[in-house]
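Quick one - inputs below.
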Amino acid sequence: MSRTPPSPRAEDAPVLRAEGLVKTHHGEGAPAHAVRGVDLAVQKGEFVAVTGPSGAGKSTLLHLLGGLQRPDSGSVWLDGECTDAYSEARWAVERRRRIGIVFQFFNLVSNLSVADNVELPALLAGVSPKQARAEREELLAELGLEGKERSMPGELSGGEQQRVALARALVNHPPLLLADEPAGSLDSKGTREVTRLLSRFHQRGQTILLVTHDARLASAADRVISFFDGRIADDAALDGTPSRGVGISGVLELKD
Amino acid sequence: MRLSLLALLARGPAHGYELKQDLEQLLGAAYPQPNVGQIYVTLGRLEKSGLIAGEEVEQSSRPNKKIYHLTDAGREALRAWYEETADEPRVRDEFFMKLALAPQTGLADQIALINKQRRQYLNTMRDLSKLAAAESRDNRISQLLIEGAMLHLQADLDWLERCQEELEELE
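Output:
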């Protein structure tokens, strides 16, 4: 496996940086310009949501940032380190160490128990079985999944499966969590649950980049990027102060 | 507020301050707290129009309080209220007029307008999420009120997205 020489990392380097990302899908018919020149930096501790209509290219963007797809041009840096020379194998390693990912359809291994699904990435990363088990127990308790260790993914509700996927993504304490429509196949109760958990991990310092078309989920982030037609149309910090200066109960107006 | 007060009085007689507390308890923090002055003014008007009737009750150490009850006409008005369906909220006309007329004024860019409006909606959505988290989960009515506001806002945001898609195509 080829390794790039370790480069000096500035303490204040963004957890994630992208410059000039371009990706065109060549399928049948006209080429689809999914990502058309994206510059982006995510600082440590930020919770960033990317929203936009379906087909705007936001999932492709997340795949480029997590090394699941390679850009046609442009580069991605992790903690100040350029990933241009990363092999597939190296990306796979980074997706265990530095990046956790949750997907819309959970992508759990269906013939492994909940416990094994969560422990597997820890074991693959070289953690001792005892340590992996301890991490798994802590995360499942945290996520309200005690007693489900022996269940198979198919026996769980969508919301529960997504919580298992979240535990799996976080078991190696990655500096960056990527989430691709994590509530996209959940009902509104499941959506609230995922929103609450992401907020909680963020409050403890987890850096998160989330792709979603659900504004309720996006509004949990402290920065929202609007993605249209492969480009960033707006990049706004949500200040969390009431927008009309009338106090929090002024958000709702009941008419007579 | 008129009809909500009538509805509260359908249960039995009450004085103004009780009605204020009932409303607050039912709707939770999401509801802009009605001030007691507004309630007394509204009760006065309802009494004048014969929908409720008030009765002074003497209190030994305090000023008299007025206990109101629903009249037959009031009960009829309330019944009519429940007969009607409510008007659905309309598209945000003011924003839409701004957006539609922007190119003619040369004073604002449509996409910039949409972005600005989206920021406001997202901030409001965030406020609502906080409100929902702060409100007791057991207060179903209040939680439903907030959830309704969030779903409306989600629709507004979806619609902004549609505006942006259409208008960017024209550019």
